[in-house]
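re: ur question from earlier - yeah i can do the single chain one, its not a big deal. heres the input i used so u can compare w yours
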Amino acid sequence: MASKIKCIGILTSGGDAPGMNAAIRAITRSAICNGFTVKGIYRGYDGLINGEIKEFTTEDVSNIIQTGGTILRTARSTEFLTPEGKEKAYQQLVKHGIDALIVIGGDGSLTGARDFAEMYDVPCVGLPGTIDNDLYGTDSTIGYDTTLNTITWCVDKIRDTAHSHERIFFVEVMGRDAGFLAQNSAIASGAEAAIIPEYNTDSDQLVKFMERGIRKSKRSCIVIVSESPKCGAMYYANRVTKEYPQFDVRVSILGHLQRGGSPSAQDRILASRLGVGAIEALLQGQRNIMVGIRNDQVVYVPFVEAVTREKPISMELIKVLNELSI
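and the output i got, formated as tokens:
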């Protein structure tokens, strides 16, 4: 299969993540080094459907390893979810002579690559580019470390005012259905609690969190909460206001600032290794897999596992935070 591949397309899809540019750089340069032509596809699957495609040289990816976001831009495509959209995308690959596709994104993006690969005979390789760290089969995803550092930096600032005013702060972080960002940023920032989807929190546990914070800091404490439309930071803050009116409660929703900024050294290295690993996978004839990192070794994970199996959070992390927040 590798002998048939002459041109490789790259796209970024879904939410942006720090380190995506480092991955684009690594893929482009490794591909050219191994004799492939590389074409960048702008604006994700929508750009593929619309033919927003440009041939890349090493110069096109110079001086981008340190930048956040993605030079290829990104989008969430509803048209690509339809058979008609996938057919248009395939016709663009044929038109531009692209023999294999590398997709950098999260579970939705890699699910799209899996479905596309099943429908058409196009080798697809995915790179886990998501701040949520929720893809199965890889210890870390591109952008996760940078985002974790950003959250920790923000919480450090919030703690200063929480302590000064003896307030309880509920800090909402991204992560969707995964609590990796909330749990680990809580440990890193010395927060009193983390409320995550993997660990159901009832009223009694909320009381326990409150008591730990009060004993430690005289009415000030930090609780990190994973985003949720039903029970995010505002939900818990409102509960405390109603059930414990003696406390001064504040909410800080960090929002999209978590996605931005220059990627950390760890994310740059991870993205570079996975980018080179993607080209190595194609050279080996691998297809329809995600390139991940496990025990500091590059691994190939079938799409069906990466996007359908749930990545468990370590109960040890919950134990560590509970013991250190007394």
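Residues 97 and 180 are 40 Å apart (CA to CA). not sure if urs matches, ping me
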